[in-house]
Amino acid sequence: MRNVKHVRHWLNVHRRQLYIWAPSTLVVLLLIAQLAYPSGRLLPWQTVDGVALGGMQKKDAANTLDKKYAARTLQLYFGDANKPQYTPAPAEFGLVTKNAKRLEQMSYPWYLQRV
User: Is pTM, for the whole model, over 0.90?
Assistant: First the structure.
């Protein structure tokens, strides 16, 4: 019981210091984490076209997106058909997607990275 009274007294005496030091420490830790985050990686929790790519390197993310687009099929309907008449892969038409340039453009200035 005595320890609880001692802690409460200490908190009452040092309340202003806690109001300053606790948020300041949190902000400093956030800034250090942001400075330490590698610049060649996508942001955490980032999604592109519904695919979660957060934290990946840009070249790995581009490969992942290229594979996803290559696996996707097109649905071709003719006339008043309710179901697709033909479902080819884009590669059958010679269509190839390359997302490397697109992901390289996904960057922002360093000063916007800071909270």
Answer: no
